[in-house]
Amino acid sequence: MWKTDMKRFALVCMLATLGLTASAQVGDYRSEFAIGFSGGINLTAVDFNPSLKEGKLMGKNAGIILRYTCEKYIKAICAIQLEVNYFQQGWKEVEDESSDYFSKTMNYVQIPALARLAWGRERKGAQGYIVLGPQIGFLLSESQEYTGSWMEKEHTHTHQYSHDADRSFDYGITLGAGMELSAPKLGHFQIEARYYYGLHDFYDNSSKGYFGRSGHNAITVKVGYLIDLFKSKNPNIR
Predict the structure, then answer these.
(1) What is the 8-class DSSP label of residue 56?
(2) What is the pLDDT of residues 117-133, one digit of tens each?
(3) What residues are paired with 127 via a beta bridge?
(4) With 0-12 CB in 10 A as exposed, 13-18 as middle and 19+ as buried, what is 211?
């Protein structure tokens, strides 16, 4: 399982790199660097096997953005984007017949390395964009919360109630889409939605472990702001 996940992760990294390299060989040249920050909310769950009765757990995200724009190829504005984010994820167990619940929040530092393609105005106006790429994460801490009567009941799965994560390292794939509004003297304002699919299991998935699968997935909505540190003098940029 570990080797299979690593092969998938390596393939995503290779495809993203090859795509950017191929597009950087032709097109309308740019060399622009922007820095900024973002923040928002997450709706998260965990892909468990054996499965649990889950709802969505709400968490927060915040971080910094580094973006290098290299060219405009045909109509797509191509960039590489690196982020460092604080990210809350985990899961929430619920019951249909009552309001009782159990939740675990896991706090990560996440580092996405993204290919970004945008269409529209770069300096003044609006553009739509997509981002795609691999992401790694490092677990900082975890906490759990539950109603008073939850632990008094008999549940099929009890391993996760008293067991912290076996692995602090996480990796997966993230895909997003958003809108950006730019103004010459104000910078770039963004709103974006993303989906993250974790390829790694945070619980032991060997024959000695309880869960065969315990991978994160998350839906994120956030806003961001960037300012340009370096701008191209290309007269074709609008």
Answers:
(1) P
(2) 999 998 899 999 999 99
(3) 120, 180
(4) buried
